[in-house]
Here is the input.
Amino acid sequence: MATMTLLDDADLSPAAAEVFADIRATRGTDYVNNFWRALANDPALLRATWDRLKDVMAPGALDPLTKEMIYIAVSAANACTYCAHSHTASARARGMTEAQYAELLSVIGMAMQTNGLVSAMQVPVDPAFDASSA
Amino acid sequence: MATMTLLDDADLSPAAAEVFADIRATRGTDYVNNFWRALANDPALLRATWDRLKDVMAPGALDPLTKEMIYIAVSAANACTYCAHSHTASARARGMTEAQYAELLSVIGMAMQTNGLVSAMQVPVDPAFDASSA
Amino acid sequence: MATMTLLDDADLSPAAAEVFADIRATRGTDYVNNFWRALANDPALLRATWDRLKDVMAPGALDPLTKEMIYIAVSAANACTYCAHSHTASARARGMTEAQYAELLSVIGMAMQTNGLVSAMQVPVDPAFDASSA
Amino acid sequence: MATMTLLDDADLSPAAAEVFADIRATRGTDYVNNFWRALANDPALLRATWDRLKDVMAPGALDPLTKEMIYIAVSAANACTYCAHSHTASARARGMTEAQYAELLSVIGMAMQTNGLVSAMQVPVDPAFDASSA
Amino acid sequence: MATMTLLDDADLSPAAAEVFADIRATRGTDYVNNFWRALANDPALLRATWDRLKDVMAPGALDPLTKEMIYIAVSAANACTYCAHSHTASARARGMTEAQYAELLSVIGMAMQTNGLVSAMQVPVDPAFDASSA
Amino acid sequence: MATMTLLDDADLSPAAAEVFADIRATRGTDYVNNFWRALANDPALLRATWDRLKDVMAPGALDPLTKEMIYIAVSAANACTYCAHSHTASARARGMTEAQYAELLSVIGMAMQTNGLVSAMQVPVDPAFDASSA
Here is the structure.
């Protein structure tokens, strides 16, 4: 159950079908997950989201697995059910070990905890942390 | 301005002073930041938080810089002002380059965006993502 | 599955039944959704919530459809499953087109993204934005 | 700096002045804090918010101090700077001891931590927790 | 469906089994809920989480029921499905009445509302709330 | 104080300067606010963010003022200080009246409140809200 129909391949507009073809080619799999099938109702949003995701998650100064773990961290903080599932699956597909996942979970738990403490106590930022003046 | 007095070294209880000594020894610096000076009002919470943080952020299956970047990601999602400042400073102290930081920011932005889209559309989780049955 | 029994009409207290009657009269439908059936366990909270909602969502300086879209935006940011579903249904019932929904989603995604970037970078507010001095 | 002018007593509309009089009488102090001075720009929202707050925070099945601590907990999770400050001040005014505050902070930290772990791992709800069927 | 296998008793490592034994002894029930069965994949995280939770939720300056209600408040603000269910069940097991629960819900709703208003209007903190200078 | 230097025009790379020129031309003002001056440290992220924002906030099925109000709603839910200030200023620049702003605030407050109630009670979604099957 979603707020939008999940489109089957047969129901895609030509513009959406083109994005699906790129998803399949980039990922090397025929499987296209539900997120894209929901976005496919708006080919412009589908295109913009996919193009940006492909750029952002590509190897660069950070490797793709590190990026997936950062993605999981944001998704956990935002309580995003779908995103937690999909990016944990992606991270495993990129080689995340169970030991790495356990440490990722520990860091998420620790950060959540100190975020809550700090937001409750409203600790003022140390001037030593200032990075905004060259 | 905080909801608690930030304790100077002279005002620490012996139990809190012991934690501060461990923070200084572990980090190799005399500087103890405001978060710990606020927590020092409750030595038990100070001790539990520091002991756990030291464990969680130590090198393991993930390196300390990766852990700091994950910490920043959670803190950004939670809009934790102090945490964003302190952990960005820590990440830089551990060698985060500006290129890495730029990619970290890009992943945070992307994750926030798709978290919002997914939470709005309530996309159902693909059975293919299931990792809960051995 | 909820933390409270969803009350059938037959199980309502007289005070709750009165609110349900007003919901039905105001909305012009016999259908009363689960949110109210959960709140009905506490007739005072049911009454206060419904009375305020009716006021807030009534036509005024903003039209009801705009209000529903704002409601969806908050609910997406808060990852509120029920609210995303119920207010998207309401917005469609008030005439939201698929083109409007697609743009609403795009704005939600954009706002989430820049919220995350800003909270990570802790950008200081421009004095030019100050509206607090007359 | 706020998005609205904080109104001085001299600038209040008669409707807002009436609410301020009730705030003063109820709280037994002449001091009216900034939240109400911002809301005073819209007397209807000021009235609705104050009337509801007065009801909700009054002694009942829960005592006012417990209610203030619950308020702090929500405000910490939402990273609401103003609310953390104002409700911690209120809780202290209602007799919150430093020992109680320390335990409140510990529970907030613990809840944030397990919220993050659960949202990352997407643990399915135990059927044993079901309270929705009478 | 979770991102981790929920471990049966038969699949526990000795270290995890020891924690489960302590959970059962402390709670006086044989039932161990899914959260711990997910964490059991990482005995170190399981141990750290359980030891801290046992400490934090024990009777002290605040009674266990008050602590459970604070836990529910944080979990609601974070939209944590599992946590809302499990801690509402725990609170009821510790004697929370329906009247107390109704007031808890009312305070959560009120706090969420004013958190949103304050975060929208960015009300500056009253100097009168300052507690950080002794 | 930010985690990044806010770049003056004189310190921009040619790629960043090009984006600033487009911001000025599009908005018809010489003023470029701090958000862009922070992003300017990474011209690729600056470019991607600006290009997408320009598209998303342009007139379409929703008018620009409605889009700004939706943006404010998300930013309030996320407690994004900078975003609340900047988008409230933008909304006023696009003609938002104080009466509209008051109603926007009321809807944000109402949505936050019912989001919290629903997330606490975990109300199951009514099958009547299903929009996912054509």
